[in-house]
Request: fold
Amino acid sequence: MSDDGLKQAASVIDWAAARRLAGEDDDLLAELVEMFPEESARHLAAIRAAIAQEDAEVLTRAAHTLKSSSRLFGAEALANHALDIEILGRDGLVAKAGERLRELEAELAKVIAALREGPLDAEPEQPS
Amino acid sequence: MSGAGAERPRPTFLVVDDEPMVRKLVARGLAELNPEKVLEVEDGLEAQKILSEVPVDVVVTDVLMPNMDGRDLMKWAQEHCPEPLWIVLSGLDTFDVAVDALHLGAFDFLAKPPEVQRVRVAVRNALDQIALVNERRQLYAELERSNAQLAEKVEQLEKLCQMLEDQAETIQGDFDRAEIIQRALLPQEPPDIDGWVFETLYRSGSSVGGDFYDVIDLDSQHLGLVVADAAGHGVAAAMLAVLFKLRLNLRDSEGNLLMPNRVLRHLNRRLHQSVSAPGAFITAVYALLNRRTGELRLASAGHPPAIWIAASGEFRLLERTGPALGLEVDARYTEKSVHMDVGDRLLLYTDGVVEGAADAETHEHIARVARAQTDRHRLLRDLYEAATRGISGDRDDITMILFERGEGVSRFDDTAAPGERQKPQPPADQVLLLQGVKGKHAFLSIAGNATWIRSQGFYEAANELLKRCSDLTIDLGVCEYLDSTFLGTLHEIIAARPDAVKVQRLPVKLRALFEELSMDAVLNHTTVSSEALPEDMHPVGEDQLDTEAQARRMLSAHETLASLSPENQKVFRDVIESLGGHFEPDD
Reply:
């Protein structure tokens, strides 16, 4: 993988924040990493269904939960996409939320990919 | 909390969040707090179910959840399940809701996403809080238990007091019966003897006395007169007097009359044999009178002098002729004799009449009084009153026999008039409250050491007198001491009726005390001149001790004193608080 790829992965999620959250417990972190794809898929499915059924309330709550989950790994970009959709949902702008779905899905795919790669800082962070 | 920590029961936690990863994170934080159980649910409805069934110590809950959110769950719990402490998870976007939760009584809130460490700290704080509350609850329970025990002790004490009172009553009953027996020793009626008149006065000090007297018609020519005084008074002295009567033998084995010196000598020997207790002795006079010739022979065993008063006014003291009975086994007695002409009188008495002041001068004073007062009955009354005046404590028995060669009515008086009857008195170092009225002017006198015990009685007596009279003078001329309750009470009485109440004859040391305590109302109503107390000053009735009224009196008196100056406030603050009063300094 290229240097670019490394940098991108590092900004997609924040391993240091995630480890702090987990109390420096790598086993716990590993369990959370394992849970994320399934949980996020569930929230994404809920978001899609809500958009299809134009259910603003379910949309808002599903986006909110996805946002919370993202922040467990310091996935700020993904969290911000989810927040945008949550706000649109709260404002009842379900169709507009649908337009933002692609971005969300793309960012989610990156996060999941980065999580699969695992914490690249088994060694201390490298100076760039 | 170090001590309680070891005994803490293991806690049960409930985590409420719709996000499984957050639940896992929180649960991990809780796992290290040695929990009994960590329960996890997805929303408020499920949490309700758990809380209704399982006792939970700490709930960690999200705010925004499907079905029932965190705020509604807390509202429900406030009413239905108030025991657990609540920690609310909240992101910045739900911060307002989190503040609401704090208002609903949440113990703490945690920012989302929650860090394991912070979860742990927040929940540990919650557990400490729970331990504190439990400890306080235990302390309260203990306090209540102690109070209950105290109440029980008080009750036991009251029972004990009742028992003592009952016993005192029993003992008093015994005294009363002993008194009846002892009185039976005394002659009931004076012998009717031509040409001689007898007058007696007998009063026992406590209910049973140790004095004894008798007038015995021995034969057609002779008359015997006995006065005796057993050491001390009360039951022991009365028993000695009984013994005296039993051992008193006026004739020899052939029935011949014995001379007074022989009578006392024999009596002394017999008493010495039967009584060897220290301090048990008897003084006595025996006089043998030839009623035809008027010759009188007399022997005296350590007894106060008999007084012979001639019709001419001449008098003689017939002093003791040997030691008191029961002290020396071989004591010998001499005799004295006088000739009694018509109009001559002889007075025999016990030392209760002179009460301690037994010097020659006192006896001569009695002799002069006896010479001046020709009314026999009045004479004995006067001597009795002089002997008892001003004595508030227990006094000695008093016996007097006066006989005169002449015509008249003989009288034996051994029963006190109802008002004169001596009741058990407080020890001399306590207070004597006297009251009296002259016209519309009432007087109250405080003698001795006045303490709280009589303060309520004093207060009531003053108010009672003020109802009937326009003026009340409180006389402190013979007052030794007033305790704080009495001081406060005195101040209250004057402050309530400044128009009517005055204080007179204020001793210097009490004046200094009044000044020190800023008792201006009392000082301003203290007169320089003083009025004589009424003749009929009599004791204020011993009130039944109503402890509740007494406690109120003490509190009121101290509050009065405290209100007089800032210094007083400081001095009496503790007393007032311990009496259960609310201390309010007036700034």
Summary: Chain B touches chain A through 20 residues (CB under 8 Å).
